[in-house]
Design goal:
five-stranded mixed β-sheet, Four Helix Bundle (Hemerythrin (Met), subunit A), single chain, alpha/beta, four-stranded parallel β-sheet, 45% helix
Length: 471
């Protein structure tokens, strides 16, 4: 059975066939974080989904080039830079570091390339220049450069490929200067924004004067720089379909740099929204969670990853604290079974059996049906437990079952972590906490415990002293 995926571009499930003539190399781009604040659990649903796509493609034998951009200049970031008085780089560096700490805690594989928008200004200028020369972009009176949807459509191109738009609302010359706008808006959008007083020191030189790029041009320039003018897969949350991804298509295909007969992107995949406790996330409702918030409630990255991987990527998913507790129970059940298999198998090697691999692969080939895939895993757990209890599983059979699980976990990424080296700074915090406990300064000891948890480590007090475990 071939891998089949729902392509937002065509609105149907299609066989996945890479552009590579040999059918093995795959270019994958996922819109990355805008580093103006801590990422929340809704953001991470998209990144865990992208990690599943990448891992499963590699499991199926494809050689994947995974690119995820870092948006380190746009409207919200400039506003925060102005408010804090920090430099652009100093402000964004902190949140990028925090993002990747969370990204690693969720066991997402690092992309092969993480281009920064601020490091690709020349590529953006070149793309804008090409659109100007093709007559699709124009200079406004304030010096900004806008993309003309009317001119784009006039050259035979379609605006509204990913989403149905009422193009009768199109009013030639109406412009949208901010990065994000309402789904109902259909208007020319900014490619290059002329320098304004509120931008402060955030600007670059260009042939059209000092300014900065619009958000949409950033991803077009970076994706084509690292994956070429036409590539296989573009991923993101469904909130990016319009305007961001629609504008990416317009800019990239308007530049006419793709080989004859090829699109900018062949397959567009979008993850659905995440609800938290049944409602849209909101700080005022008390259901707005960063990973730090969940760590402080006693959960870890493995449990969060498991829960985010239980629902199909195109289904709106309700993320709850009860669900996290259920994830902990499910993982404990899995760990218990794996422990029995390891005890029975000993050290003998074995080839993976197909009792788990075949149904697991069939499930994920069906548009990444992760719920069905987990069903096969826990049916396998039940059968392994039954055979072990009945003393009907031989050591060689247990070893083959473990080998199959190890292959499956290359996709799921939820096995219990092996012993991890403890960084010196974490050891110092743990020692300071122990000293505070001995001094009966329990407030400081509790504060240091929370600091360790924030940094991804749990402290377990035992009769032999405190033990540190990675989250």
């Amino acid at each position: 059975m071939a891998l089949r995926l729902f392509n937002t571009l065509t609105r149907r499930v299609e066989d996945f066939q890479p552009l590579d003539p040999a059918g093995r190399r795959v270019g994958l781009y996922c819109c990355g974080p805008t580093v103006y604040d801590l990422a929340h659990i809704g953001n991470f649903r998209t990144f865990v989904f992208a990690d599943l796509v990448r891992r499963y493609l590699e499991f199926r034998g494809y050689t994947v080039t995974h690119v995820m951009n870092i948006t380190d200049v746009e409207d919200k970031i400039i506003r925060r830079v102005r408010e804090t008085g920090l430099s652009l780089k100093d402000y964004t560096r902190r949140y990028e570091e925090e993002f990747f700490r969370d990204f690693d805690a969720l066991r997402c594989r690092r992309p092969h390339h993480t281009p920064h928008a601020t490091e690709h200004i020349p590529e953006m200028l070149a793309l804008i220049d090409r659109l100007m020369h093709r007559g699709i972009a124009y200079r406004a009176p304030d010096g900004s450069i806008y993309f003309s949807i009317e001119k784009y459509r006039g050259c035979g191109c379609c605006y509204g490929q990913l989403v149905n738009l009422d193009l009768q609302q199109l009013r030639p010359g109406e412009r949208v200067s901010h990065d994000e706008y309402a789904k109902e808006s259909v208007a020319d959008f900014a490619l290059w924004k002329a320098r304004a007083p509120e931008d402060g020191e955030v600007f670059w030189p260009s042939p059209w004067g000092e300014g900065r790029p619009g958000w949409h041009i950033e991803c077009s320039a970076m994706s084509m720089k690292w994956l070429g003018p036409a590539f296989d897969l573009h991923l993101g949350g469904e909130d990016l379909i319009f305007p961001h991804h629609e504008d990416e298509i317009a800019q990239s295909e308007g530049a006419a740099v793709q080989p004859p007969g090829q699109r900018f992107v062949k397959y567009w995949l979008h993850g659905a929204h995440l609800l938290v406790e049944g409602r849209k996330m909101s700080k005022s409702l008390g259901n707005f969670f960063t990973l730090r918030d969940l760590f402080q409630k006693g959960f870890n990255g493995r449990e969060i990853r498991y829960l985010l991987l239980t629902a199909h990527y195109r289904e709106t998913f309700n993320f709850t604290l009860d669900g996290l507790a259920g994830a902990r129970t499910a993982l404990s059940r899995l760990d218990e079974c794996l422990g029995k298999l390891r005890e029975l198998a000993g050290t003998q090697p074995a080839a993976p059996d197909d009792n788990l691999l075949q149904p697991f692969t069939r499930a994920l080939d069906d548009d990444l049906n992760i719920a069905a895939a987990w069903g096969t895993v826990f049916e396998w757990v039940r059968e392994c437990n039954r055979l072990i209890a009945a003393r009907q599983m031989a050591p060689a059979q247990a070893a083959a079952a473990l080998a199959a699980w190890e292959k499956v976990d290359e996709v799921l990424g939820v096995s219990a972590a092996a012993e991890t080296a403890i960084p010196p700074e974490i050891m110092e915090l743990a020692a300071a906490r122990q000293a505070a406990r001995k001094a009966k300064d329990f407030a400081r000891a509790d504060a240091l415990r929370q600091e360790l948890k924030t940094r991804g480590w749990l402290v377990e007090d035992t009769p032999k002293g405190p033990k540190l475990k990675p989250v």
